[in-house]
Amino acid sequence: MVCGTIAHVSETTAPDTGTALDDADLARARDGDDAAFTRLVEPLRRELHAHCYRMLGSTHDADDALQDALLRAWRGLARFEGRSSLRSWLYTVATRTCLDSVERRGRRALPVDLSPASERTVMSDAPLTEVAWLGPYPDAGLAAGPAAPEARYEQREAVELAFVAALQHLPGNQRAVLLLFEVLGFSAAEIAETMKTSTTSVNSALARARKVLAKRVPPGTQQQSLRKIEDERLKEIVGEFTSAMERGDADALVALLTEDVTWSMPPLPHWYTGLDAVTDFLVKVPLGSCGSWRHITTSANGQPAVAGYLRAEDDGEHVGWAIDVLTLRDGRISEVTSFIGREHFVAFGLPTSLP
């Protein structure tokens, strides 16, 4: 690692737990009033964006997909008859838009998907630019609880890194079916209408998707783990992590980690697992050869996170380097995923540099 360097869209009848339809604004929007359309969709924009992220694994791709989906919805609004909720119809449009994107771009990955862990620190690690990497999600304002009574996953559980990473191993149709059913509470019949297929195909896709996720997603979610930790203790863990990084205190940092901890840094391809390998990496790279660090606490993927700023020279400013997403288990850090890149700071609304 070198530091510093519209088609027709039919309506479905899924449960509506969002804002009630404003009939006056709907009529105005059908007549071409874009301000009325904006008022209709704005309360739903955040959850639609999260849905696009779950489908695509990238905040940037989710931005593009949501913009495209709302444009499709605006152009096709005359065909929306109100037999279902506007929210349900917009999810149909957004899902089909994301499926188009999945077909074009394929899936996103983390380093652990590509190769075994490295036993020794790789000092010459360089970004692997030909890989489409999974990105972090700025989850501030994301609602807690399921989107519908029938849904299995809470909204925050459904953006956790392990869950979104596992989704990337599913074909687009299975990804969509699982999210519509397990996260949003659509019925199999409603999903079949959305996907233009049969309920038999939907149930088959759902069964296959569940089988894959059962192998790739830990039995306990991060939300369950975090609920076992008092808020003050969680703040202490994050504070101790950032303080140890800034002091260059390897012993204090290692004391926070589980024995089977993993550390990865997309877009760098090498990653480390186990306390010995991770300690060797920490001593040689972030605490050894990089420079000085400053941090801002944030939240990503429903998990605690810190934004790391690196200063390679004594007289320079600290420049945004990586968003470190922390996975916790039994009060310790079991995984650190450092998403390197200044573009992530922009998506999180964070400054790209600090004095």
UniProtKB/TrEMBL annotation:
InterPro entries, per the entry: NTF2-like_dom_sf, RNA_pol_sigma-70-like, RNA_pol_sigma-70_dom, RNA_pol_sigma-G_actinobac, RNA_pol_sigma70_r2, RNA_pol_sigma70_r4_t2, RNA_pol_sigma_r2, RNA_pol_sigma_r3/r4-like
Residue span, RNA polymerase sigma-70 region domain: 40-108
GO annotation, biological process: DNA-templated transcription initiation
The keyword Transcription regulation is annotated on this UniProt entry: yes
Keyword Hydrolase among UniProt keywords: no
Positions of the RNA polymerase sigma factor 70 region 4 type domain: 162-211
GO molecular function, one term: sigma factor activity
Keywords from the named record: Sigma factor, Transcription, Transcription regulation
Domain SnoaL-like: 240-335
A Pfam family per the record: SnoaL_2
Similarity field: Belongs to the sigma-70 factor family. ECF subfamily.
NCBIfam families to which the protein is assigned, alphabetical: PRK08241.1 (NF006089), sigma70-ECF (TIGR02937), SigX5 (TIGR02960)
Quaternary context: Interacts transiently with the RNA polymerase catalytic core formed by RpoA, RpoB, RpoC and RpoZ (2 alpha, 1 beta, 1 beta' and 1 omega subunit) to form the RNA polymerase holoenzyme that can initiate transcription.
Protein name in the entry: RNA polymerase ECF family sigma subunit
The species this protein was found in: Herbihabitans rhizosphaerae
Organism lineage: Bacteria, Bacillati, Actinomycetota, Actinomycetes, Pseudonocardiales
